[in-house]
Design a protein that fits this description.
The complex is a heterotrimer. Chain B is mainly α. Chain B is about 70% helix and about 0% strand. Chain C is α/β, with parallel strands linked by helices. In chain C, α5 crosses α7, α8 crosses α22 and α16 packs across α17. Classes of the chains: A mainly alpha, B mainly alpha, C alpha/beta.
């Protein structure tokens, strides 16, 4: 097991190298002269030259690349151009608010949609199944922005059930502000989640082992909850674990709309301010997060699927 | 439930010998034609295409850019069915012109990504070895960055505007398709019909283009129609983040973003117009994709 | 109280399926009964409706698309078809149980075999978890799994195919059912394993005084195990009766044809009778005299040294790397072909026979360099083809062709068969233009017994036998000298198999072809081959002329193989 994790970590090295290369190429080679961008619109050529010197942009690319690598491994992503804050500090401070939105919302959404999908699989091809499927497809056809806009307009602005936006750093106070974003998060997950889990369950239902279970005299619910669910755990785990990095990264739109000081809101602000270092750091960090959770999901496979042995 | 193994025909499947050959594509088309949902959604998609073409040519809704500050934020009326926006421009006309933007992004962006994905996937899957390792490394790297951040990073460094959005979507969206193509080419490369071609002396190019590609091309079509939806959604997202089309170009994304301010002034028709236009196009695309999948891959039916 | 000698009586059963092509009557007017303590064999080719009938008894037909439209299934004086679902569930797995063709997919991969056997016991006999587990160990012991107390914790993938089927059987007999339905239980297994499973089923049937319904396409198997036989054809029962009668005095022309078209170990005909010799298209009987079959030409069988050697394989090896080491170095290999030396003379057929995994298919593909050999040489007419470059190899491919097992997989589904047959001619510049190639294709179609008018059709519009004919026509298009037939008739029904074997025979005579015929089926290999090589674990363990191998096997493995062949019919 530890040997497996070690080996998988080794295999991550080339990918990590690829990610550094990708971010570096994007932001240092393709993305124009960082000095011009950092200096702002009204800078004189002398100012730009000064910034170039201070950022080390006059050095050859490979030196800059090693500088970049050095920064990454010391978790020193520099400072934000707009707020002048340390980016790593910004990131660590944003994790808490982001997770307090996404984690409860995610848990509610997963439990709700998996149970609903099981019901749909149990009564497949019934009217209930078909209506739900069409509803899910319709829900998928709307942009997430539309949910947020209407949600905020109707539930907060018109009916005054929730505050329009805001934040209270204390644990007790923040739930008041998190209510609406959580509701919208769950709504946003419904369509694709239900359709996905339904497909997963239906994929299993046509397997031969289900026929065997029927031939044993098990009833439909027993088959579904014991035999099918256990087999469906593999695709379910893949999906759930791969959503995890996004929980930490927060929700771009929800956080910026509702004024939640999480990482998602941070990114949106950085985009609006053309704050390259922040985006660069986020791109890299999200890739690392993704890789870590990928490893976790691989280890979890071995727990649910006896065919997989970690060696 | 499968009663009989696939390797043996059911007597009722044997067709009379007089019948002229019908290819799998023709078969699929017949199945599609019988599917009412598919036909309705297809008609809707064609309607949007016509709408976009006529708007682009200036035959209808040529007033989309007509600024008239005196009639700013007028609610829907007989003159302006969906009201007007901040500059007094007709919302219906702008929404109709937004179709052009969305379809351009959808078709051009996704088209580009399909080309990249198919070529790389075919090379990796067919040749394997070092080529495969390099391509897999490349797309795993890209895939490791969450899609939305990737799009944002690309847009920030390349810039904004309609053409750039197409490029960004083309450069970022190909990974999934590439993975599918690689797996398919790998599978088909070892299939007996390709092995037969090898034993007949067929060259690599012949195997790739004459034999394997036609057998996986239905997946290109399926992934394309799904990609168009993602591309249209991405445009809306990018527009909200300020990485969208040039200011003044009518787009649903811009209209929806503008609604953030408009709603606080009780102006709901801009949002409603863009949402409505987008909803029916995207829904039709999703439904058509669903039907396409059933028609092209009948084995997946009932799932 | 119940003096009825029959355990189950099926009356006028009819099953329909809704398909894209319309309503299909998968089974019509099916009536037969299963006596207590007896085994009824339900035999038929694909599409005969035999599996559907067995699933109907369990009420396991998926609906939609299937539907039982008529009939009664009387079991213990109750009609199973009208029983409430809850009552039916008490019958399934308890009083009637079933085993299936594919033990791998039929077992749930994520539960241990112990869990899966206990489940039935807990469900029907209300045993405690512990008691059920104990009984499961006993059941595994009964079905012949060694060290059952340890193996009970295994997952299905940790067992071999034969063992998995034993687990399925343990599960089925757990509640001591009155009827065991076995749906092609040995079709996916090797012949030596098949023999063991059949013996086990027969023993268990005696021990528990069960009745058994045994479904198969294989008449040999049915002869070994069944007391009574029901023959089905295209959804109908064409004949039923005691097994001895069916085999010795078949009444229906279809049964006669089916019995005759199977290659047999103790006859040496020069061609096989086919069903259409006995039965006309409309089901009428045709007179046919089996004694008109000639013996194989003796000069073919005796080893004649005048013919030149076409193919000579020397010390051929093919190793597949099994596990990659930490830094990419290979640590262990699968020896798929391990030091094989063989010779084939012009105009003769070499049969390569062995069970799954013995390396016969890899050997066939290595000979054509579809798989590159690891070591050794392949001399074709004296040229070592392992050292040829790509261009010369392409020229060589004109002379050497292959016909694969699965006629559905070996034709490009998006190409008309006309294009498929013309393609090799195009590649090798045979025929001046499209027109000429198409004419050649048309004549090849006639040669393999198809109509030239079918050239514009696509593979999916043909039946399996027709497709295999197309593959043969395509192979002939380059006018080869040498053809490898890789399990070329294994996927086909016996009646179709006989036609294709006859065709291969005729073509060999006409074009003086040399064959390497790969198969797991000893009877088929015996029929078609002049020489036979028996393969086991990548090695050729015995190599001799066909008659000697069968009459006087030397190697233990060959003996074991031969004794495992069902002796049901002679």
């Amino acid at each position: 097991m530890f040997k497996y994790i070690f080996r998988r970590t080794i295999y991550m090295v080339p990918i990590l190298f690829g990610v550094t290369l990708l971010t570096f190429t994007l932001f240092h080679v393709v993305g124009g002269d960082p000095a011009v961008l950092a200096a702002g619109k009204h800078a004189t050529p002398e100012q730009i030259e000064l910034i170039r010197q201070s950022l080390g942009l006059n050095r050859p690319l490979y030196v800059q690349y090693f500088q970049f690598l050095h920064q990454i491994f010391t978790l020193d992503f520099g400072r934000s151009w707009s707020s002048r804050q340390n980016i790593w500090t910004m990131f660590t401070q944003g994790v808490g608010p982001s997770l307090s939105l996404t984690l409860p919302a995610f848990l509610i959404a997963e439990v709700l949609t998996i149970s609903l999908a099981l019901l749909l699989a149990r009564w497949r091809d019934s009217l209930f199944d078909r209506v739900t499927k069409i509803t899910c497809l319709a829900m998928l056809s709307l942009s997430s922005l539309v949910y947020i806009l209407w949600g905020q307009y109707v539930l907060a602005y018109k009916w005054d059930i929730f505050p329009i936006s805001g934040w209270d750093p204390s644990w007790a106070g923040r739930w008041e502000f998190l209510g609406l974003p959580i509701v919208i998060f769950v709504l946003l997950s419904l369509g694709s989640n239900i359709l996905f889990f339904r497909t997963v369950f239906l994929d299993e239902i046509y397997h031969d082992y289900v026929r065997t279970a029927r031939a044993k005299g098990l009833n439909e619910s027993g088959i579904l909850f014991k035999h099918v669910l256990r087999n469906a755990m593999i695709p379910i785990i893949t999906r759930v674990v791969q959503e995890m990095p996004f929980l930490i990264l927060g929700s771009l739109l929800l956080e910026s709309f509702f004024g939640i000081p999480g990482i998602g809101g941070l990114v949106v602000l950085a985009i609006q301010n053309a704050d390259f270092p922040v985006i660069k750091a986020m791109t890299f960090l999200s890739a690392v997060l993704y890789m870590i959770f990928q490893l976790i999901s691989d280890v979890l496979y071995a727990v649910v699927d006896p065919k997989i042995q970690l060696r | 439930m499968k009663e009989i193994s696939l390797s043996s025909p059911l007597p009722w499947q044997e067709k009379s010998s007089e019948q002229k050959g019908r290819s799998l594509w023709q078969d699929a088309l017949h199945r599609l034609a019988k599917d009412k949902v598919a036909m309705v959604s297809f008609v809707v998609i064609v309607f949007y295409l016509i709408l976009a073409a006529l708007s682009k040519l200036g035959i209808i809704f040529s007033n989309f850019d007509l600024v008239n500050n005196e009639i700013a934020y007028q609610s829907p009326s007989w003159e302006h069915w969906l009201g007007t926006d901040l500059f007094g421009r007709d919302v219906l006309a702008r929404a109709a012109h937004g179709t052009v933007t969305s379809l351009t992004v959808g078709f051009a962006g996704t088209g580009l990504s399909m080309v990249i994905g198919t070529v790389l996937g075919a090379l990796a899957g067919y040749f394997g070895g070092k080529m495969d390792e390099a391509i897999v490394w490349f797309y795993t790297t890209i895939d490791t960055v969450p899609y939305i951040l990737l799009v944002i990073a690309f847009s920030m460094v390349i810039g904004s505007g309609l053409n750039t959005i197409c490029l960004v979507i083309g450069l970022t969206f190909w990974v999934n398709h590439c993975r599918v193509m690689r797996a398919e080419f790998m599978k088909h490369r070892d299939r007996e019909y390709v092995q037969s071609a090898v034993s007949l002396g067929a060259s690599h190019l012949r195997r790739i283009f004459i034999h394997i590609l036609p057998n996986v091309s239905h997946l290109v079509l399926i992934n394309f129609s799904l990609g168009v939806v993602t591309a249209i959604m991405s445009e809306v997202m990018l527009s909200y983040l300020g990485l969208g089309v040039e200011p003044g170009v009518p787009s649903w994304g811009m209209m929806i973003s503008d609604a953030k301010l408009e709603l606080s002034r009780q102006v709901w028709w801009g949002l409603a117009g863009a949402t409505g236009f987008m909803f029916f196009l995207v829904l039709s695309l999703i439904l058509f994709n669903d039907a396409l999948r059933d028609a092209l891959d009948p084995k997946l039916k009932n799932k | 109280m119940n003096s009825n000698p029959n355990l189950i009586e099926i009356e006028n059963l009819a099953v329909e399926f809704k398909t894209d092509e319309g309503l299909v009557h998968a089974a019509k007017n099916i009536s037969f009964s299963i006596p207590k303590g007896k085994t009824v064999g339900l035999v038929g080719e694909s599409g005969s409706g035999k599996s559907i009938t067995s699933l109907a008894i369990m009420r396991l037909i998926a609906s939609p698309p299937g539907k039982i439209t008529n009939g009664k299934i009387l079991f213990d004086q109750k009609n199973l078809l009208t029983l409430p679902e809850a009552e039916m569930r008490k019958v399934r797995g308890n009083r009637i149980s079933m085993i299936f063709q594919e033990p791998m997919t039929s077992l749930n991969p994520v539960f241990t075999v112990g869990d899966q056997i206990s489940e039935t016991l807990i469900l029907h006999q209300k045993l405690s978890k512990k008691a059920a587990w104990e009984k499961s160990i006993d059941l595994l012991n009964q079905v012949g799994i060694p060290k059952p107390a340890e193996r009970i914790k295994s997952y299905p993938h940790e067992m071999s195919g034969g063992q998995r089927q034993r687990v399925m059987i343990a599960m089925a007999i757990a509640c001591e059912p009155e009827l065991l339905i076995a749906d092609e239980p040995t079709t996916a297994l090797d012949v030596t394993i098949q023999k063991q499973i059949l013996e086990l089923l027969a023993n268990l049937k005696e021990k528990y005084k069960m009745s058994m319904l045994f479904i198969t396409h294989d008449l040999g198997v049915i002869g070994d195990i069944a007391d009574e036989v029901v023959v089905m054809y295209k959804g109908n029962i064409v004949e039923k009766g005691p097994a001895t009668n069916i085999f010795s005095k078949p009444q229906h022309p279809y049964t006669k044809g089916l019995l005759a078209c199977r290659p047999s170990l103790d006859r040496n005909p020069n061609r096989l009778p086919v069903v259409s010799d006995f039965m006309s298209e409309d089901g009428k009987e045709k007179p046919y005299d089996m004694s008109q079959l000639k013996q194989k030409k003796t000069n073919r069988v005796s080893s004649d040294e005048q013919n030149p050697v076409v193919l000579e394989i020397k010390n051929l090896k093919k190793y597949f790397p099994l596990k990659k080491g930490f830094l990419g170095g290979t640590q262990s290999y699968v020896k798929a072909v391990d030091d094989v030396t063989l010779k084939v003379r012009r105009g003769r057929t070499l049969g390569l026979v062995g069970e799954s995994g013995c390396g016969k298919t890899t050997l066939g593909r290595t000979i054509l360099r579809l798989v590159e050999p690891s070591e050794g040489s392949i001399l074709y007419n004296g040229t070592n083809i392992t050292s040829l470059d790509r261009e010369s190899m392409r020229g060589m491919r004109r002379k050497m062709q292959i016909i694969f097992q699965d006629p559905y997989a070996s034709l490009n589904p998006r190409m008309t068969i006309g294009a498929a047959i013309a393609e090799p001619m195009y590649i090798h510049n045979i025929g001046k233009n499209k027109k000429e190639r198409s004419d050649i294709a048309a004549s090849l179609m006639k040669k393999v017994g198809l109509e030239a008018s079918m050239l514009n059709r696509y593979p999916h519009e043909f039946s399996g036998g027709q497709r295999q004919r197309v593959c043969i026509a395509r192979a002939l298009a380059v006018r080869p000298e040498f053809i490898i037939c890789d399990e070329s008739v294994s996927a086909l029904d016996v009646s179709i198999q006989a036609q294709i074997l006859n065709l291969l025979f005729d073509l060999q005579d006409e074009f003086n072809l040399t064959y390497v015929f790969i198969s797991h089926d000893l009877a088929v290999v015996k029929f078609i081959s002049d020489d036979i090589a028996v393969m086991y674990n990548g090695k050729v363990v015995e190599y001799n002329d066909a008659i000697s191998i069968y009459e006087n096997p030397q190697h233990d493995y060959t003996k074991k193989l031969l004794s495992a062949i069902p002796k049901g019919i002679s």
